[in-house]
UniProtKB/TrEMBL annotation, chains A, B:
Organism: Kribbella jiaozuonensis
A biological-process GO annotation: response to stress
Protein name: MarR family transcriptional regulator
Gene3D superfamilies: Winged helix-like DNA-binding domain superfamily/Winged helix DNA-binding domain
HTH marR-type domain residues: 8-139
Length: 140, 140
DNA sequence: TATTGTTATACTCTATAACTATA
DNA sequence: TATAGTTATAGAGTATAACAATA
């Protein structure tokens, strides 16, 4: 059906543009805090608790070897620490230091604030629909 | 108001997660085509016509000096070309070669297909609401 | 003087392949 | 043998500062 096809690509296009807009916004909020967007993402993922290298690499969608050097750099700045895992001597767990935790929360709050500003003009009903729709997309 | 605050951060959180999901999807569709996500973005931006370095750097949100090396690499692969701008001898215009145009369209179509699959289960009314809401966010 | 684009330099991000240590 | 994480290496993305050519 022609109408449906047009509407699908409109939505896809809007989602792609939104992705780029949010990437920029994410970079703009990370930079003044002295972080790359990737570093900010890593720190924010650790807010809910320490993670092993393999699990963290899966969440961030990067290779473990790439993660090693990222963690090296953050550890040098005392933002994260490698902690031994008593249950498995091969493994370690990456956790936020107090300074890292503070910075992670600053990042998180700054991004949420910026996005809240962007979406503030939407009617409550639209925000609810949007949230529900996005969540359903994410669970696929 | 507590309820509004909670709803705002839910939406912000859903948008951030969607951004990351779409970034992964974008990387996954670019890679088999032999492109990084940034290269794919650059090629797709040029689909609508040639652009100067300054304008292109603004659209991609990167410094002109960073763009120079990206264009160098794509030019070496004959995907883009630097064309002289007769109106201004300092400037050049970056345009897609036939191979670049082909690849750009492949990228674009692949991403739209993947996203259409993700959003295919949403009711038509929700898709419309979503599209309208995202467009209104983007114009801010 | 201002603008367009490039060069030089230094980091960061990323993947692949090979490796060590432990399970 | 399989898994957790690292090392070595190479290439790509990015910013800052300084520059050449043209407007």
């Amino acid at each position: 059906m022609v109408t449906t096809t047009a509407r699908d690509s409109d939505l896809a296009s809007a989602l792609v543009q939104t992705m780029h807009r949010l990437q920029d916004l994410h970079a703009e909020t990370s930079r003044p805090l002295g972080l790359t967007p990737q570093q900010a993402h890593l720190l924010c993922v650790l807010i809910t608790g320490p993670l092993g290298m393999t699990e963290l690499s899966r969440i961030l969608s990067i290779e473990r070897s790439s993660l090693t050097s990222m963690v090296d750099r953050l550890e040098r700045r005392d933002l994260v620490a490698r902690v031994a895992n008593p249950a498995d001597r091969r493994a370690c767990r990456i956790e936020l230091t107090p300074a890292g935790k503070d910075l992670a929360h600053q990042c998180h709050d700054a991004v949420v604030d910026r996005i809240a500003t962007l979406t503030g003009d939407l009617p409550a009903a639209t925000r609810t629909t949007l949230t529900t729709a996005l969540k359903s997309i994410l669970t696929q």
